[in-house]
Design brief:
Elements: E1 56-61, E2 66-70, H1 73-83, E3 89-94, E4 105-108, E5 111-114, H2 126-143, E6 144-154, H3 159-169, E7 172-180, E8 197-204, H4 215-221, E9 230-232, H5 252-262, E10 268-271, H6 278-285, E11 289-294, H7 297-308
Parallel strand pairs: 2-11, 3-6, 3-10, 7-9, 10-11
Antiparallel strand pairs: 1-2, 4-5, 6-8, 7-8
Length: 336
């Protein structure tokens, strides 16, 4: 016989687990340990000598929080992953080769020119292109912190491969941003719509990641309304090219928005395809630390100049935007 009172109902029912009336402490997002301000995040990382040459440091500024390297990004990332198996970076911005330099033509400064950015931008065929995208993304995933995110820019020539590789590797794709250019290069062949956008994929390290999204900051920047996934931003301004220009240069405003949306002050940002150093400039302008790696000698020199002089790049922040043509053709025109 059951004890007396076993089946009696309680006078006051206990609250359900999700009862909104029950006060709860707000959960703070978990943070990975942060390196002390002013210290070199790559201290103790050993970069091995290889057939492509050793990774060398081109700029080290502990006080401002910027470290730039020249070398092969795959070997660079492997060395970092070996030292930091749990991840090191809060965010990655990657502008990889688009594989556009295939003999087509485009319009630059009102003239017809060939699309030839360099050997690094030439296609090796869809299979090898995808293999390359998979390998550098795999390494980026390893060096992201558990809650870190990555932004990757591209056109139709590369972005579908990047997105597929992300799915294969287990990234969690958060958004696909359409960067709309208000003044794109004209289409000379008149056989296509004028290409006026690039896509930027934003993804977390994996499905378990509790990514950072500064929703209120983005809403405030957008005049009090939720920011949409279509961003209308001009190509790099003239003042951004004061110390030189890169053929695939991104506007600082574009990279800065990605950084401000997904990081906090003091966070560490990586660019594995540094190019002209825009990511480093955007990070420094917004109180984030930056590490970048670039293969080409002339490009790393440009990155160093821009990073060292980032404070003087924007003397007229409230001035009108200069009308600059984008340096990269979105689609080589077919002739004949």
């Amino acid at each position: 016989m059951p004890p007396a009172g076993r089946n009696k109902k309680l006078a006051i029912a206990p609250p359900s687990p999700n009862d909104p009336r029950v006060p709860r402490q707000p959960q703070k997002p978990s943070r990975h340990p942060v390196a002390p301000s002013g210290s070199d995040p790559l201290a103790g990382v050993t970069f091995p000598q290889s057939e492509t040459g050793a990774v060398r440091r081109a700029l080290s500024d502990n006080a401002r929080g910027v470290w730039l390297y020249q070398g092969n990004c795959l070997e660079f990332l492997d060395a970092i992953a070996a030292k930091h198996p749990d991840g090191l970076f809060d965010m990655i911005f990657a502008d990889p080769p688009y594989f556009l330099s295939n003999g087509g033509i485009t319009c630059h400064a009102g003239k017809m020119v060939k699309v030839d950015k360099g050997e690094w931008d030439k296609s090796r065929g869809p299979e090898l292109n995808h293999e390359f995208n998979t390998e550098w993304l795999r390494r980026c995933q390893r060096v992201l912190k558990p809650n870190g995110t990555i932004w990757v820019s591209g056109t139709q020539h590369v972005i579908f491969s990047v997105g597929y590789a992300m799915q294969q590797l287990g990234f969690k794709i958060l958004n696909d941003i359409a960067w709309e250019k208000p003044n794109p290069p004209p289409n000379l062949s008149c056989r296509y719509f004028t290409h006026a956008t690039e896509t930027i994929l934003w993804a977390a390290k994996n499905e378990k990641s509790k990514h950072c999204f500064n929703y209120q900051d983005m809403k405030q920047e957008n005049g009090g309304k939720q920011m949409k996934s279509v961003w209308r931003l001009t190509a790099p301004k003239t003042e951004e090219k004061r110390f030189g220009k890169h053929p695939t240069q991104k506007p600082v405003a574009l990279v800065a928005r990605c950084i401000l949306a997904s990081t906090r002050e003091g966070d560490l940002v990586l660019d594995p395809f540094l190019g002209g150093g825009t990511t480093a400039v955007a990070a420094l302008e917004n109180k984030r630390r930056a590490i970048g790696i670039e293969l080409e000698d002339k490009n790393i020199q440009l990155s160093v100049r821009r990073a060292e002089n980032s404070a003087s790049l924007f003397n007229h922040p409230n001035g009108s935007e200069a009308k600059c043509q984008d340096e990269r053709s979105l689609s080589p025109m077919v002739t004949g």
